[in-house]
Amino acid sequence: MATQTTTLPRPGGARSSLPRTSPAPTSALPHPPSTASRKASVSSLSSLKSLKRPSSYASLREESDKASPNRLSTQSERNVAGSTRIFSLPPTSPLAPGGSGVAGNRRASSLAPASPILPGARKSSLNPKGRFPLNVAGIKKKEEGLGVSLSPDEAVPPSPPLSRSSSQLGNHLEAPMLDSNSGSRSPSAMGGDDEKSKGNVLVSIRVRPSGEAGKEGTDWTVDSGKSLVRYNGKEGGDYYLDNVFAPRDGNVRVYESCCKRLVRRVMEGYHGTVFAYGMTGTGKTFSMQGTSENPGVIPLAVTDIFSFIRETPHREFLLRVSYLEIYNEKIHDLLSPAQNSGAGVFGQNVEEIKLREDSKRGVYATPLKEEIVQSPTQLLRVIARGDLARKTGSTQFNARSSRSHAVVQIVVESRERIIGGGAPLDGKAAAGGAIGGVRVSTLSLIDLAGSERAAETKERRQEGAHINKSLLTLGNVIARLSQAKDDKNKDHLPYRDSKLTRLLQPALSGSSLISILCTMASSTDANNLESLNTLKFAARAKNNIVSHAKKAEEALVTDAGSKVLLERYRHEIAELRGQLELQAKAQMDTQEQEAQRHEEQMIEIQLARTALKERIDHLNRLILSSKSSGVNTTTGNPHNSTLLSARSSTYSTAPGGHGPQAVPRTFSQSTFASIGPPPEFLPSDPGSDDNAGEYGDGNATLAAQVKALQADNADKSRYISTLEKRLLQARRASQSRTSIANSPRMSSTGDEGSLASIIREKDSEIANLRAQLDDKERMVSALRSSARKRELADLKVLKVRTKSIDDLLSSKRRASSTNPLSPPIKSKSGDLTGNPVAEDEEELLLVKPLNISVRRTPVPPVRSSSQSLTARKKASVMSLPDSMLEPITASYSPALTIKTTDTVTTDNITDIDTTTMVEETRGVEGVQGAGPSVQQRTKSSEGAVVKFALTILTAWWIISTA
Ligand SMILES: Nc1ncnc2c1ncn2[C@@H]1O[C@H](COP(=O)(O)OP(=O)(O)OP(=O)(O)O)[C@@H](O)[C@H]1O
């Protein structure tokens, strides 16, 4: 093992002869601004040490055994146990255990045997000449009791502490820390319980390198192989500690020697505390945090934690981390920016972090943010975040000095792993019938602020005052620890004098493993006093702190508010799973119901739509039917076309034939006498279809159409009201569903959208239907008025015609009765029926509304059949509209062809059956000459006239009906 040795002047002088000095100043640290004062201070320390040295070791030994039985635990301690030295420090110095008069009250015997590493003791042991009397026999007795036999010679160094040697050689990894629970004896802990517990406290010294080569002072000898630091100055002495790290030792070595075992024990269930203590700029932060090339204790511990988890598959772990700093005696959460800045997000005051204590958790800060971490990177990132928030400032010795005590706390929860929710992997719980609980342990990694003597600025002075006060309290507590063991003064230890000691209370009072890394510099004379103080602090800590750390119990957590997250999370996971299942089930039910309702709605809507469409189609068909009948196509009165079409269709479907046969038969069947009242005067029985056909096809169709349209109107009205009702229902249902759901999560937007669009569609359909209904109603009323007018016109014309025929017949009868031999009718003019008319007289008969005119022209005397025919042909002139000619032509085509000219005269009749006419005219001619009798001629003439009149009337009727 490489040993760095700096040869320094050996301390000398009989310290025992030095008088005890007055108590040290209240300053945390001595202030040796000048060499003279520093020397004075060292001299004063020497005096104190010598004063504390017992005059009779044997008597002290007795007391020591009482106060601190079995204080020796490690081999190093045992090796140096034979040499004991008592010293005292200025009582108010943070590094002096006897501050505030405590040292004076302190029983020297309690320190004497239990301070194997005190410089004086080591120095004594190193000095075979025995400047300090040694009760070798007593020590031997004790060592024997511990199972170690030390001869006086053996008790005298220079042999290095074996256990430390082995530790520093790397064997420390195989030498676990002691479990005061288990009762197992560690190879390095061969003594009783106290010794075992002593092994749970490691105190190490790290000497930082000088900034400049060759500037190392000569006052110090650092022998890491021997775990020795020797001060060669006046107040010098040898200090043996558990580990001594030379300036060249790196962080890995430091970690492995003083922290690795502790970290692994924490993973096993012990509480552990590591803290760095020393003067400002001596490498505390460097040791704890390190650099990227030279990672410190914290990153190495983090790596180890996760390595342990990997190596321990039978357990499951949960890690949470917090990071706080104590700055000017106030606690700040370094992971919570609001807490750290002292103001909330919106400027409101944040709750002050306080320290609390309970039996399970010990002393803890609250409220404090804890973050659960799952990887080393994550953990280191959280810590790095806290580091950034930490208060730093420039001091005389450190450009970036930590102005606060920083505490990283990693809480480790672990439990036996459960396979499928049943027994743990190792079957332990299965044997006990219960699953193991959760074990909670805590690793605290603390980088203390550095003690400093003087500060230049007010801020630094204030910080320094707080830092020094807390460090002084720490020293005081540690100094009084051994005293408190016996006399039940534990409760009176000044833990509460500072936040730091309060927070460290569990560790200092022995409930956790503890490793203290003290840092010091050896470069300049100015630091010697501080370094010496650091060494003394280390010695006291090593001597006084006793750890009875026990593995944490595995506790079954039933308390929902428990801090044990692992179990709580398990509970929560189980609960959430249950809730999830319930929710999923409920959601499925709801979805099913929704789907069903939706489906029903859709079917309903579909049905409504189908019905609506059908109705619309039906109405459209009706409208098209009217249109196809020429309602809107004629240039003249629309009713004409309608009626024509209606009649035309009637003809085409007339039973018993079509064409000319059909018309006369129909006409003869419905004689003039049978012409009844117009349809509106008919009984208004909608079911009496018979009436429709009774008054001719045109009237019947019209009436039927009116009735059908009325029925349609009623239907549509009913249907529209039904649709409106449904719409109302749908709207209500939709509203109620929306209000019930009343949740933004409901995916009703789509449904509502589609429903709204359907409603809009229906609205528009209803509007369309209404418009159509209006159209129909208008049409019906128009048809009605048209029908009324037409019927009136029909009646009028028929009356006129009947009258004229009657007149004609009566005149003929009169003529024949008065003079049977009278010559054929000679009149200057005559109409088709033979009525005498003035020659130039033209009787114009207007047939409204068809505007058909029949003009009468004088009939020339009948001379021959051909002449008569021609005359007759010319006798009648009819003016017919174009639209009326076609059906007439079509109907009469076999016997009568009427040319489609604007003015139709009998000249245009080309194919008329003239046989009868010729026969008749022969008769007439015969009368004139030697022809038939007058009666015969009269009869023949009458028949022809009647026939012709009938033909004309038929044509007129057809036209007028149309
Ligand atoms: N062992 C070491 N090896 C190399 N450099 C070191 C060592 N110890 C300290 N240093 C350097 O010394 C300087 C001060 O160290 P550091 O900040 O760790 O001191 P400190 O004890 O934390 O001081 P303070 O209490 O003021 O915060 C740093 O630049 C650091 O890198």
TrEMBL record:
GO terms for molecular function: ATP binding; microtubule binding; microtubule motor activity. Its main location: cytoplasm. Residues 200-544 form the Kinesin motor domain. Belongs to the TRAFAC class myosin-kinesin ATPase superfamily. Kinesin family. SMART domains: KISc (SM00129). GO terms for cellular component: microtubule. InterPro entries: Kinesin-like_fam, Kinesin_motor_CS, Kinesin_motor_dom, Kinesin_motor_dom_sf, P-loop_NTPase. Residues 1-130, 145-200, 628-697, 731-754, 811-835 are annotated as: Disordered. Residues 70-86, 628-653, 732-751 have a biased composition (Polar residues). It is found in: Cytoplasm, Cytoskeleton. Pfam families: Kinesin. Keywords: ATP-binding, Cell cycle, Cell division, Coiled coil, Cytoplasm, Cytoskeleton, Microtubule, Mitosis, Motor protein, Nucleotide-binding. This is Kinesin-like protein.
